[in-house]
Amino acid sequence: MSEKQPAAASKKTSTLMILLCIALVVAIVLAVFGYVGKNSEASLNQQLNTQIADAQTQLTAAADKLTASDSALADSKAQLETLQGQFDTAKTEYDAYKTTAEATLTEAKTAGDAALADLQKKFDAYQTKAAADLKSAQDSAAAAQATMSAKNDELATKVGDLTAANADLTAQVADLTAQLAQATTKAVVPEVVVAVTPEPTATPTATPAPTATPAPTAAPTATPAPTAAPTATPAA
């Protein structure tokens, strides 16, 4: 945009230089005409008129070029003003956007720093708590392992005692079984003798049956049967 103004000024300067050259040519022609004799006045006048016509043509062309240059310059100025307005609008919008973006960036950075600090604080607290929980769990596991070891030792001792007691009881049961078998072999069952008595004339009184003797707990023995059944006494 800024390069169009010097170009338009250069065109205007060239037009002025052309006009000055034409004026100089006319002056030279007039000076030559003053020194020329009257004999050559007609031919010189004709040449002069021709040159003047050419100069007028060139002057008209230069004026047309100047008018076109002024029109182009006016158009260029209008375009420059339009572009300048667009540039000013864009610059204003850019400045507003830049200000808003910087404010947003500052706010986001502040919020990010605060969030990062809070996150770091929470992480440190979590790390401390996790370390404490881990140590507590390790201590509890060690205590539980020690308790389990003690209980295992106690149970192992009880299992040993029970195993020994079981072996002792097994030996006692075997001994009692042998004794019972031996006592059963030695036991003699006596023959029962039934005596026939005459029919009584009166109702005999029943004699109670003998009570069985209980066997001992350690080594039970068979109770021998009675030798004969009791006889009824006849009434008088």
How would you characterize this protein structure?
The chain is mostly helical. The protein has helices at 4-35, 41-186. The termini are far apart. The relative contact order is 0.05.
| Distinct helical segment count | 2
Shape: rod-shaped
Label the structural class: mainly alpha
Question: N-to-C terminal Cα separation, in Å?
Answer: 175 Å
Say how many strands there are. 0
Q: Which bin fits the share of residues in helices?
A: over 70%
Backbone CA Rg: 76 Å
Low-pLDDT stretches are: 188-196, 200-236
**Quick check: average pLDDT?**
75
Main sheet characteristics: none
Give a topology summary.
Blueprint: H1 4-35, H2 41-186
Which descriptors would you attach to this protein?
236 residues, mainly alpha, 75% helix
Write a brief caption for the model:
With 236 residues, the protein is mainly alpha-helical. The protein has helices spanning 4-35, 41-186.
